[in-house]
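Format notes (please read before filing issues)

Several people have asked whether sequences and structure tokens are stored in separate files. They are not. Every record keeps both together, in the order shown below: the sequence lines, then the token lines. Line labels are part of the format and must not be stripped during preprocessing.
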Amino acid sequence: MTEKTFVYLNRKAPYGSVYALESLEVVLIGAAFEQNVKLIFIDDGVYQLTKGQKTDGIGMKNFSPTFSALGDYDVNQIYVDEQSLKDRGLTMDDLQALTYEDEDDDWAEKNSMHLVNREQIAELIGDADVLLNF
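Then the structure lines:
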């Protein structure tokens, strides 16, 4: 039996709806069951990964630090849409640094995030066995 690929498409801003937090929770649960997980951040979803989020003024818990745990769950295929960043005046430097330890390379710390274009996103989605859209 071949391993299925689960692609999680994150389109929504981190706060103002349950989508971003629900996606993160489902990803962590799936990864705990050793699913092959790929995360794509597109449109306002790129805001989920921004550094220094402060939620005091909106009365919601800041869950953004939880993204740093993804590497511990072997979630190291995180794709960020280049056009979405550009449209929002952001660069990869504005995003959290998400890493994992590569057991095949003497536990070297490596970058989990990949800047991709829309063509590459279409390929990732096309190769998915399961697509979850948040």
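For reference, the curators noted about this record: The domain at 5-133 is CATH 3.40.1260.10 (Hypothetical Protein Ychn; Chain: A,). The two ends are 28 Å apart (CA to CA).
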